[in-house]
Amino acid sequence: MANAESKSSLIMLGQSASQASSHSLEDATPSCWSCGTMRAVHFCSSCGKVQPPVPVDYFTFFGFPRKLNLDTAALEKEFYALSRKLHPDVFGQAEEQERSWSLEQSSMLNDAYRTLKDPIKRTEYLLRLEGIELEEQSKQATEKARSTGELKKQVVPPDLLEEVFELNMHLEELRAQKKVGEDDPALLEEIGRAKLPLEEKHDALLNELKSEWNEWDELVDASAEAGANGERRKILDKMVDVLNRRNYIRNLVRDVNEAMEN
Ligand SMILES: [Zn+2]
């Protein structure tokens, strides 16, 4: 359990990564290396030559605003179009340099696509851009927790305390039984039943997350600056909270499934 909990929590990092790494498309894409006119992220819009990769975020890579309600059909279409254009075979006769740029661009394209098409990965990625790191990915947080000996925060969803408690009891019982080689079908059945509300909550939390997306996107549309920082942070914090609760349930259900299978 302790393991599952520590993996599930998200923490805040002080500085906003977006402030440090935000590149406007124009800053990030200087002149084409070949013809000298204004280039685009992947290809020169004038001569069509593939361009060296630039450090833009995945939203910018696809030309999308940094919003969470994303047109996944448009994303997929753009992904396949770019995949074809960047395919290494296309650059078989090209200069070594161009071929290697096309490979780098292809790999960024794949990463960007995989991240943006998945609703949870997309949300976590946006949070990262906004300076909020997943705890399991944050070495800094892990080292800090280790050096201070402090326990990472537990995020049992408050409305599921009873269910979680019950499931954990069953889980202990099951593990104890397995240890002595016993098999109790009634217990397994009970665990299966106890899992249901958690699985339902897991799905419901995705919808809760999506309503936070709407708030975020409205804020982006309003492009409210300084004054809205508090509001911005509030929405991001709520998304972190939803993800924490969802991860907690996911890990618990996974633990239960593992215990039942072994
Ligand atoms: Zn060009």
User: Rough shape?
Assistant: elongated
Strand content: under 5%
Strand tally, please?
0
Counting structural domains, the number is: 2
Measured between the Cα atoms of the first and last residue, the distance is 16 Å
Q: What is the CA-based Rg, rounded?
A: 23 Å
Question: Which tags fit this structure?
Answer:
11 helices; mainly alpha; elongated; 262 residues; Helix Hairpins
Question: Nutshell version of this structure?
Answer:
By secondary structure, the chain is an all-alpha fold.
Topology (SSEs and partners):
Elements: H1 2-8, H2 17-21, H3 25-28, H4 58-61, H5 72-86, H6 96-117, H7 119-129, H8 139-148, H9 161-179, H10 185-222, H11 229-261
The structure holds zinc ion (ZN).
Zinc ion binds next to loops.
Describe the structure.
The two termini are about 15 Å apart. The chain has 11 helices and no strands. The model is unreliable at about 1-20 (pLDDT under 50). It is about 65% helix and about 0% strand. The chain folds into 2 domains: about 15-130, DnaJ domain (Helix Hairpins, Orthogonal Bundle), CATH 1.10.287.110; about 155-260, no CATH class. The chain has helices at about 1-10, 15-20, 25-30, 60, 70-85, 95-115, 120-130, 140-150, 160-180, 185-220, 230-260. Bound molecules: zinc ion. Zinc ion binds near residues 34, 37 and 46.
